[in-house]
Design goal:
It contains ten helices and five strands; from the N terminus they run βββββαααααααααα. By secondary structure, it is of the alpha+beta class. InterPro entries: RecD2-like_HHH, RecD2_N_OB.
Length: 259
């Protein structure tokens, strides 16, 4: 298994269905949820566990894979603290039917969902992601319903892929969602083009972290985008140290080169 943070050892995970959302703070994505455990690579044997952490929208009765570690709360006992997570795509026929007939897909009832699975099979969701035109094979669907299905699946899948991608760069869920809120579906493209943009736009991301990402994706140390970012970084650092925004060009360049 490839871990989200590029580590050699497998990261602890809990797979399960969200049974209840006990608490959520919309300002920082922090949530406390009850999960019905269906799989784990840990020694946890109970059927349920309280999962805590900062992550985006989660839906009751939906399956997720949570990565993190166990903590012992002094009042509430053992909990699983999340570093990152991803939604588990349904693979069984019944799972796909339940997914497509959920509130996420207005106008798509259970009978229609069953017909989609009958025509496209248990891999219906993957097939729709790869080629939305396969829905034309489902004759009970009109254009409006096909559009609802495609747009909803793309939205959910796109966000999931972005968050997983950010996790691979080492961002935890809270910061990952702050980044996603800023750039939306363009997030990974922005990072690939100029990871230093994060320093200007995202609170909590500094030059060193952006520089590490730049190295991962192959941006050269003498590239124009890095030099510009290093200069801006040193202007900011100098203003913090000296208390003013004036700095001689030769001093600035010398400090930027050492960055």
């Amino acid at each position: 298994m490839v871990t989200l943070f590029g580590e050699d050892e497998e990261k602890a995970f809990i797979v399960g269905t969200v049974q209840a959302i006990f608490f959520e703070n919309p300002s920082n994505f922090y949530k406390v949820v009850l999960v019905n455990v269906t799989d784990t690579n840990t020694d946890y044997l109970e059927k349920e566990i309280v999962v805590t952490g900062s992550f985006g929208q989660v839906q009751e009765e939906e399956p997720y894979r949570f990565f993190g570690h166990f903590v012992d709360h002094p009042r509430y006992g053992r909990q699983f603290q999340v570093d990152s997570y991803q939604q588990e795509r349904p693979t069984s026929a019944s799972g796909v039917v339940n997914y497509l007939s959920s509130d996420k897909f207005p106008g798509i009832g259970k009978r229609t969902a069953e017909k989609i699975v009958e025509v496209l099979g248990e891999s219906a969701i993957d097939r729709i992601i790869d080629d939305p035109s396969v829905l034309e094979e489902v004759t009970v669907l009109n254009e409006k319903k096909r559009q609802v299905i495609v747009e909803t699946i793309r939205l959910n899948h796109g966000m999931e892929q972005v968050i997983v991608g950010l996790n691979r760069y080492g961002f935890g869920s809270q910061l990952a969602f702050s980044i996603y809120q800023t750039y939306q579906e363009e997030t990974l493209s922005v990072i690939q083009e100029n990871p230093y943009q994060l320093v200007e736009d995202i609170e909590g991301v500094g030059f060193k972290r952006a520089d590490n990402i730049a190295e991962q994706i192959g941006i050269q140390a003498d590239s124009a985008v890095r030099i510009r970012a290093a200069i801006l970084h040193e202007v900011f650092e100098h203003s913090i140290r000296s208390g003013n925004t004036y700095v001689q060009a030769d001093v600035l360049l010398e400090e930027a080169i050492r960055t």
